[in-house]
Specification:
Elements lengths: L11 E7 L3 E7 L5 E8 H4 L10 E2 L7 E4 H15 L8 E8 L4 E5 L2 H6 L7 H5 L7 E3 L7 H11 L2 H8 L8 H11 L1 H5 L1 E6 H10 L5 E2 H4 L5 E2 L4 E2 L1 H7 L3 H5 L2 E2 L4 E4 L2 H7 L6 E3 L2 E2 H8 L8 E5 L3 E7 L9 E4 L7 E7 L3 H11 L4 H9 L8 E6 L12 E6 L5 E6 L5 H7 L6
Parallel strand pairs: 1-6, 6-15, 6-16, 10-13
Antiparallel strand pairs: 1-2, 2-3, 4-5, 5-8, 7-9, 11-12, 14-15, 17-18, 18-20, 19-20, 21-22, 22-23
């Protein structure tokens, strides 16, 4: 392995984070000090896509939430343009990144030829706008595949058997059920699909000008991979859709080299032709790696668009709740995770409704609230919740002072007057 000290002077490392609401870049030097960073917010900087929180909600299909695939391409180009005056791309020795887990991209037949022969005189947007069999990428917030989840579980012998095989029971946002839904409801799209990528492998594919492998850790969030063998499970593939293995390609470790950077970026932005692209992985596995959790029992909490709790373990013991993935940096280890859909977007919604869209005002209310608020607690669900499974647009109200009453209240029945009665620190 080449150490940092043996790298050319001035070497840089470029990392990306392709999340639900934005695309970010961070540049580190030899000493792993941040020397530059940039961000593209999808809603505000690419308003022509008309996303809210980076996503679309389909009013005709309850729980169907997706993002426009091509928006991610345009954001990637814009982010590189923002970085151009800040760094010398020829000094970048390695590039990698993380992608929101469970999002999927569907490359149209013939798109590999386009991807591998990109013209540096033209934009990525203009060359890739017709490269997808569907322009809609299902993402982790989607909850429209209950039927497909049950079908896959039944086909392999039940939810627990699927969990022991793949690390999780069938979850609506997981890529396997999403693929099955497309196969069942839009068979022409499935037939016209040459390769299926996750968000992580999709972005890596653009950088190498070739279809990058899905990595084993992010691939475990698909309900398709044998968690112990770290190969695609033929049993689950057959239960999901025909001819699926060919569309998925081969798996790779999260720390493997995906390839050298594509000539497109060498000629257009003057990257060094020897710059390595390291496998991208999911945002949660990369958070675990970045926090350097290294002892079984270590836990971390991430409060993002979704809220997650994750840690590491020496053995895989999947159950009916939560997830087990291969550890992204320890070949023989595993990571465990719980995921809650109603994270920052739900907190922001409460802030906007009751604190004049200001965190300062929100915090002032919080400071004036006595601990435990006299026994009145609320859990807010803007979207269908994963854990526990609860419908969106509701508030789960726990009033402990009244004999532990637990009530699920529709959000449209909640206004600031009602909230004032529960939470005296809020002033309408």
């Amino acid at each position: 392995m080449v150490g940092r000290s043996s790298l050319p002077e001035g070497s840089l490392f470029l990392g990306f984070d392709s999340s639900t609401q934005s695309l970010k870049a961070t540049v580190l030097n030899n000493e792993l000090i941040i020397v530059a960073s940039e961000i593209v917010n999808f809603d505000s900087e690419l308003p022509h896509y008309k996303t809210e929180g980076g996503v679309y909600r389909d009013p005709a299909d309850d729980g169907h939430i997706f993002s426009p695939t091509i928006m991610w391409v345009e954001a990637f180009e814009l982010l590189l343009e923002k970085l151009k005056p800040k760094i010398n791309f020829s000094k970048v020795v390695a590039v990698s990144g993380s992608g929101q887990q469970h999002g999927s991209v569907y490359w149209k037949k013939g798109s590999h030829t386009v991807l591998s022969s990109l013209d540096p005189s033209k934009s990525l947007l203009s060359q890739l706008k017709d490269a997808f069999s569907t322009m809609d990428s299902p993402i982790w917030m989607d909850s429209s595949t209950t039927k497909q989840c049950r079908e896959i579980e039944d086909a392999v012998g039940g939810a627990l058997k699927l969990s022991k095989l793949t690390g999780s029971r069938a979850y609506q946002r997981f890529t396997g059920p999403q693929i099955r839904k497309i196969y069942q409801t839009a068979p022409r799209i499935y037939e016209d699909t040459e390769r299926i990528s996750l968000v992580s492998s999709f972005m890596a594919s653009i950088l190498v000008g070739n279809y990058a492998s899905i990595d084993e850790t992010d691939g475990a969030g698909m309900n398709l991979m044998d968690i112990n063998q770290r190969t695609w499970s033929k049993t689950v593939l057959e239960a999901t859709a025909p001819g699926l293995e060919e569309k998925l390609g081969k798996l790779a470790p999260a720390y493997a080299v995906a390839g050298q950077i594509a000539p497109y970026f060498v000629e257009r932005l003057q990257f060094d032709k020897n710059c390595l692209v390291i496998q991208w992985s999911g945002d949660n596995p990369n958070s675990l790696a970045g926090l350097t959790l290294n002892t079984p029992g270590d836990l971390a909490i991430s409060l993002g668009t979704s809220d997650t709790v994750f840690g590491i373990t020496a053995e895989a013991k999947p159950s009916l709740e939560g997830h087990v993935f291969p550890n992204p940096v320890e070949p023989d280890g595993y990571m465990v995770m719980l995921c809650y859909k109603n994270g920052s977007l739900t907190r922001e919604d409460v802030r906007n409704r009751c604190a004049e869209k200001s965190w300062d005002i929100f915090n002032s209310y919080l400071d004036r609230t006595p601990p435990l608020n006299g026994g009145k607690l609320g859990f807010y669900y803007k979207d269908h919740e994963i854990l526990p499974p609860l419908p969106g647009n509701h508030v789960l109200v726990l009033i402990t002072s009244l004999h532990g009453i637990l009530t699920l209240v529709p959000r449209d029945k909640i206004n600031c007057s009602v909230l004032c009665s529960w939470f005296p620190s809020i002033h309408c």
